[in-house]
Specification:
alpha+beta; Glutaredoxin; Serine Threonine Protein Phosphatase 5, Tetratricopeptide repeat
Length: about 400
Amino acid sequence: MKHILTLLALVMLYTTNSMAIANTTELGIKFHSLTWQQAQEKAQAENKSIFIDFYATWCGPCKYMEDDVFTNTEVGAYFNANFISLRIDAEKEELALVESINLEAYPTLVFFDAKGNQMVSQVGVLEPMELINFGKKAANYQKAFLAYKASPNDYYNIGNYLNYVSESQAQKANDIALGYLQKLDKPTLKTAESWQIIKYITDYNSDIITYVYNNPTYYSSLTGYDTLSYTLMNFMLKDAASQESLAILSQLKKFEITYLKAVDELERPAAFYNLVNDLLYYQHTEDIAKYAELLNTQCHTYYWDDEEELASNAMYFAEAYYEEDEAFGVKSKALDWVQRSRELNDTTWFTYFAEAMVYYHFSEYKKALPMARKALAQKDTSDPELQTSLSNFIEDLLELTDYEG
């Protein structure tokens, strides 16, 4: 009898341990060892979407997600019920898929529909409830897509679907919006319904956008006009720089002036805004000579009586281009601007601090030190955090110069 009881105890212990192991495997997300093709087949068979964690073995945040988020019980319950989940080492596995999602950082979390079409994506760490909400967002995306597919000419369904698509697939959203709007007569575009579609267009050369900016009286008062305008201008600048196209740059300048006039915000001469766009263009194309020339023009023409702009430009220019001093006279230009800013106002900490920073970037610590001390001595340094920061800066300079006293 004793042996039987012992045997029963061992059986119970084994059973308990087995159950514990089984329960452990049920906790968290169940990641499948499938190829991309197999995952799609399984998703279609089970009528589910696909979730993929694109990771790298050296990535700390990826490891945190693996150990502390994907193992969460609530996360597992939701994801296992709704998705086929995979983890892909993006540096070794499914490289064609990795390339298609334009991966830029780790971890990248992506949802696909059962046929492999990308839905929504997220870069970086998500905590358990954030990940669940992200999963729900993917589910809502799928619902919006199905509604759009069922009624592709219903503006509400289109707008709702575009709201999800545009977050990670701007080009796709643009194509869908244009495909719908180009079927309409131009007067029909002047409706609240059409505007809900127009605002997803990113093709600044499209006839729809041309129509919008030829009718500023109507469109400039609508919610989202500002956002659309700045989105389009950003696309123009990006294209102008990447293609080194002065033609697109010229188009951008005209577009911005039209926009500013429409919203009654043309507060400076048009030449000022054109100069700003030129600066951005040459900065992006890394033409430092032209950029330095134009920044000097901006400071002398438009900011010569604005101490804050002069000081800010001096600090930025010195920090960004100190290594190019010999070729482009970076230090002389920065000192010219910052010393003018002190002429305008020598009772504020910022102008002294800016000059100290210019010297600091050129490793002239003995010249930086008195300027930093004068910055701390100004009456507008009463904020304790500012005083602490300036004091720490002075201590650093003292160490760098081995200054005594």
